[in-house]
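Onboarding guide, step 5: your first structure request.
Type a short instruction followed by the sequence, for example:

Predict the 3D structure of this protein.
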Amino acid sequence: MRKEKLLICMLASILLVMGCVQHEEKTLTIGVIVPETGIFSTAGKAMKNSALLAEEHINKYKLSKYNVKVIFADGGSTPEQAKSAFMELASQADVIVGAYSSDQAVVCAKAAEEVKKVYIASVASTSQLEKMVEEGNKYVFRNSYNTTYWGILTGEFLRISGAERYYFVGYDPLKTFNQGMLKAFEDKTKARKIGEIYYLSSRLSPDDFAIKAERIAKITEKDDVVIVGDPSGTAIQFVKAYRKSGGKALIYSVGGVLALPQTLEKLDLSYIAFQCAGLEETEKTDLTKLYFQDYRKRFGENANNFAGLLTYDAVLIAAQAWKGNTESTIAQLESGEFKGAGGVYRFSKNHQALWGSKDLIGIIAEYVEGRIEIVYPEEFKTSEVIWP
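The system replies with structure tokens like these:
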């Protein structure tokens, strides 16, 4: 009897321990820097929503061995605010993603090296991030486009549209980005540049975009392409002013607000071409349609197809790559592949996502009389470029 009681007690103890182990979930905390205030706050809302959706999908569909929790800090619109947000998250998070502008991402990358945390830039395009990796900062990765790829997509549009001339319209606060993008395609395209101009922020000069729109409308013709390098809300006002001034050229936007379905639906425009990281119709992986459909169900609006989608993917990448510690996770990011709504991500030796590869390619589309048609890449193509 004593032996039987002892055996029962031992079995009970084993079962109790096993039960505790089974119910003890390993948690991965991912910090997300979003611009909840300041000039990028519209994008910040989409980024935050997308990160929350990523958390839901990871846990629901078991996309990680860990139970994932996302936490947020407001990066505002300045480098100082982004650095403060990064340091706030660093004390709680295992991996940090996000921030919006390039100058914000640079300070976050420096902070990542200071505190030895993996940082994934999900929106910024500056080449400084790749240079920092070359110089020894192994903690920073980027899943968004770099500046060169923005330009490559623009060059692709000029090629497939058959344009002979183009006018480049940039945004002065993003002049470095605009010029880097322009450099990536201007010497490679057969189209001739007939002008280049940068309008000021509306906070500095409320009418500058309208003044320059009127000037460009007088120079450009129906068979020209006007490339709008401004992803912010001022681009909407510029396009309206350009058409109001009689401008007839085809308009191609690098994306941003002029690539969002809800924005395009509200604009009284029959046509605009744009680039983005993904659309519901471009099912690069089984997560593409899921991202767009579930975002609409959960938040009651169409999903953001660049800053939002890439923040969603950054959270997914972090969750798939996490190996329990920073060093092992860096090694996994450098050698592995990771599924997102935008495609399958792999990273170069400079920790840049390999955009332009077979499994990860940007989208060029056109908004035509209330519908979206895809013109690039070929595998998703639903239309030729339709000149207005």
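Each response can be followed by summary notes, for example: The chain has a mean pLDDT of 92.
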